[in-house]
Structure formats: C-alpha cells, structure tokens
Amino acid sequence: MDQETRPSRPTLADVAERAGVSPSTASLAFSGAGPVSEATKQRVLQAAADLDYAGPDPRARSLRQGRSGIVGAVVAGRIGHSFRDPVMVQTLDGLADELGAVGAGLLLLNDAQEGTLQLSNAPMDGVVLIGCSPNLDSSVAILSRRGMPIVSIEGLAALGVPDIAVDNRGGVRAEAQHLADLGHERVAVVTLNLDPTERRGPLTPEWERSATTVPAIERLQGLRDVFPDAQGFVTTGSSLEEGRVAGHSILDVPADERPTAIAAQSDLLAAGVIRAAEELGIAVPAELSVVGFDGIRVEGLDYDLTTVWQPSREKGSAAGRAIIAMLDGRDPECEQFSVRFHRGATTARVPAPQR
C-alpha cells in the first residue's frame, strides 16, 4: 500500500466524535485525569477500542524529542468549576483539537496553592496558561525554572511569554459607549475575581490597583474609558450565583441610589445580575440595563443579552498551534483576536425620573 492510500492513524479528535463528547473531555477520560464520570470514561475507551486508537502518536513523541507527549493546561481554581463555564470548555476544546491532531495528550492542572507541586513536577513537555488566573505570574516563575515552553491565553506580555489575546478593553469600551449613548450615567460593574484571595466584596481603588487577573483588569480599563468613576462589586469568579450575589449587593438599595445600568464581566455574571433584579422586582431593561461579555448561551436565561462576543474556541486553537510550534523548535505565531459587540434586548434608554 503506498503512502497516499494508507489509512491515516486515528486521532483523539476521532475518538471524541465517535464517543459524542468534546475533545477536551475525551482527552481527560482517556488519560484518567479529570472530573469525568465513569460512564463517559467507558464510552470514550470503547470508542478508542473501536477505532484502534492506542494513545499518543509516536510522531508527537518525536516532535518532543522523546519526552512525554503531554501538554499541560493550567486553569484557575478548582478544575471541576472549569467544566461549568462554557467559555473555558470551548477554549479547552480548541486546544485539545490542535493537540489531538498530532496525537499529543492534554493534562489539566489548577494553579491554586495545592497545585504548586503539580506545576513543579507534572510530567509534561509544555504548558498553556489560561489568563483568567490571578496566579499567572507565579505559575510562569515555577514553570520557567523548569525550562518549560509556555504559552498564555490572555496573559501578560510583560512576562515574556508568547500570548494569545483578545481585545477585552475595546470590547467593553464599545459596551460602555452604548450605555452612555442611551443616557446612562450611574453605571456599576460586576468583575471577575481580581486576585488569588478568592474573596468577594465592593470594589475599592486599592483592590483595583493590586489586581492580577488580566481579563478583569483589561475589561475594567474599557469601562473606565467611558465611566471613570463607576462603582462595582468583585466576585470570586464567573458563575450565575456569583452574579446573583453581586446583583443583590448593588441593587438592594433605595431606587434613587441604585445604578441604572450594570456592566458584568461575563455572560454568566450578567445572567446572575438579571436574576437578582427579577427577585427584587426590578424590570430589565425598563428599569435596569445589563450587559455581559463572552457571547455564549446561558442556560435558563430568557433574554437576548447585550454582550460582547469573543472567539473562545479559536483562542484555544491558536494556543495549541503556538505550543506545538515551540515544542518543534519554531517561533510561535502569537495572535490577538477581535471581539464583536452585540446589541440585545437587555439595554434601553435610561429611565425617566419618577415624579
């Protein structure tokens, strides 16, 4: 059989498609590392057996000069939380697709304090750092001591790490200008977590100045380009419940003291703010405008959310291509992705004063 007619070797992406799961879930199930149910794991293993998929392609090991054939993906906080965030799932899917195409495996790690030992000694050839982490600089320091190739997604260029970025600041600036054009002046912000402490509470100037989470910093900058004095609330991360808690804190005040618009730094947070408004009897958008960020479908949200769409899967794919290039001894192609403003049905002109 000549080279042109020889069947191609099955990849992890083929296994995922046959098992009916995402590539990132298939990678975790096949490696045995990650929050994957036993039923899903068995379905993936059966699909691998059906396709005669035996594991990482020897070409990937050659690419990595005989090393492990594994790339680590470092996420913030508990790994299980990542699988409840559609943005993170899409990003990991894009990364797993690129790695699976060369037969490389994906090892999911966290950057919490208990994860330091993993970063120090986990068997992997390179690492992709997800930039929503507030521990990005310490993770880079640990991995640099190992001489580990590193790519970041929405990280800090100042750290000297090849970065895959999106226009967070420009996207939020467009949202903020939209609110200003509608006549809003009292605007509040609900942020992602700002630092490794995982605490929540009212946003203060000191807390903002010490922030280490890159997307949160950049999105705050975009809002302040239009509303420099906006008050806000800091959450422990992107979830509907965190948005609900923040919404109650901001909105459960006399009507003449509450904001007429809230800019949430994720769609999940925005959905939580809307739920809090509903529980407090505040109509969206007639009495309160709400904007988010991400452009995802939020389960149970019966609104067309005004938001900024970002290419989450494409970010992961770009990071995968970059880390593979580094492992192959080539310079990575760093990319900055544009975002797109979407005017939905959760914003309206500022309410007229009640007489």
Task: Tell me about this structure.
Residues 1-7 and 57-64 have low confidence and may be disordered. Helices cover 41% and strands 15% of the residues. It is built from 14 helices and 13 strands. The strands form three sheets. A six-stranded parallel β-sheet has the order 2-1-3-4-5-12, sandwiched between helices. A five-stranded mixed β-sheet has the order 7-8-6-9-10, with helices on both faces. A two-stranded antiparallel ribbon has the order 11-13. Helix 1 crosses helix 2 and helix 9 (168-181) packs parallel to helix 11 (214-224). The protein starts with 11 loop residues before the first helix and ends in a 13-residue tail after the last strand. It has 355 residues and is of the alpha/beta class. 52% of the residues are buried.
Write a brief caption for the model.
The chain has 14 helices and 13 strands.
Neighbour order of strands in the largest sheet: 2-1-3-4-5-12
Averaged pLDDT:
85
Taking all Cα atoms into account, the compactness measure Rg is 22 Å
Number of separate helices: 14
Strand content: 5-15%
Distance between the termini: 85 Å
Largest sheet: 6 strands, parallel
> Rough shape?
globular
* Low-pLDDT segments: 1-7, 57-64
Helix-strand pattern? HHHHEHHEHEHEEHEEHHEHEHEEHEE
Structure classification: alpha/beta
Q: What is the percent of helical residues?
A: 40-55%
What is the β-strand count?
Answer: 13
